[in-house]
Amino acid sequence: MELPKYHETFIPVLEILNTVESIKSRDLASKVRDLYYSELPIELMNQKTSSGANVLIDRILWGKSYLKMGKFVMYPKRGFVQITEKGKRILELGNLPLQDLQNDSDFINHRETVTSEKVNEIEDEIIKIENASPQDLIDSGFSTIETEVKTELLERLKEIDPYYFEKVILILLKKMGYGDFIETSKSGDGGIDGIINEDKLGLEKIYTQAKRYNENKVREKDIRNFIGAMSGDTSKGVFITTSTFDDAAVKKAKEAHHRIILIDGLKLVDLMHQYNVGVQVKTIYEIKEIDNDFFEED
User: Fold this and answer.
1) What is the pTM assigned to this prediction?
2) What span, in angstroms and rounded, lies between the C-alpha atoms of 3 and 46?
3) What's the CA gap between 251 and 219, in Å, rounded?
4) CA torsion angle 123 127 130 131 (round to 10)
5) Is the dihedral of CA 86, 92, 96, 100 positive or negative?
6) Contact assessment for residue 166 and residue 194, using Cβ atoms and an 8 Å cutoff
């Protein structure tokens, strides 16, 4: 007997979710373990990862995460999971092979939201190499985790209150090393959401505008209004969105007399991931190698 692969937990996860309106992720994993894998030997049930996490629970939670990527399940509120109509339809078929999920259009769109060509190349190479080196597998694993975290982060940003999103942006810029920031009034601010000091002494100011969009692109008019709202005490601005900028908006920013930096959703989550805003370090792995100098004789 052996532990199930994460993709082998897809149907058990959906079957549990189909019996409840919603459930906490950890409770879901425990129910799947108890109902479907309780006959496994105790040593397998208690097997730990190098970081101390339970392997079986971890794989079930990864199964849940992949189902979320394909919109077979959803997160109705923080910490809870719920089956979708799409998940119920798959459950009626009684089978969801990993290849079917990887070819699913929602899954593909989800992964492409924040993934990069480099990540795709690494993962494709690992799939092709039957006997991948340990380092190859580590690189692929880290890339997969990072992609999932960034995708989830972008989804969360699109769901939060627009005013709180503006504060998140100012917190990010503060973590990036800029000086103190000022939140502007939420009424009549003329398109300015915040003012940050470019340096610790506040010698120069940078105006910020944050647009929390789901699908809509930032248009040329938005950039024009932002430039128009900037007063004479600064020539620098940062426009951030969770979506993207259309071509006219990009052109307007480049041609402006002001220096306008545009940050789209992909760049935003890259920066938040880099500066640990909205994310936290879960586990640190220590990899050792032979110290050749130790074995050198004097």
Assistant:
1) 0.71
2) 11
3) 10
4) 10
5) negative
6) yes
Mean pLDDT per 10-residue segment, the chain (298 residues):
92 96 94 95 88 88 91 88 96 92 88 60 51 69 82 86 88 86 61 78 83 89 89 83 94 91 94 93 79 75
Which own/partner contact pairs does 273-276 have at CB distance under 8 Å and 24+ positions apart?
273/146, 273/149, 273/150, 273/153, 275/172, 275/175, 275/176, 276/175
CA dist., res. 275 & res. 273, Å (int): 6
Task: Please provide the DSSP assignment of the chain as one string.
Answer: --PPPGGGGHHHHHHHHTTSS-EEHHHHHHHHHHHHSTTS-HHHHT-B-TTS-BHHHHHHHHHHHHHHHTTSEE-SSTTEEEE-HHHHHHHHHT---HHHHHT-HHHHHHHHHH--HHHHHHHHHHHH-TT--HHHHHHHHHHHHHHHHHHHHHHHHHHS-HHHHHHHHHHHHHHTT---EEEPPSSS-TT--EEEESSTT-SSEEEEEEE--SSPPBPHHHHHHHHHH--TT--EEEEEESS-B-HHHHHHHHHSSSEEEEE-HHHHHHHHHHTTSS-------------GGGG---
Q: Are strands 73-74 and 80-83 parallel, antiparallel or unpaired?
A: antiparallel
Residue recorded with tokens 């128009």: 228
What distance in Å separates the CA atoms of residue 181 and residue 202, rounded to the nearest whole number? 10
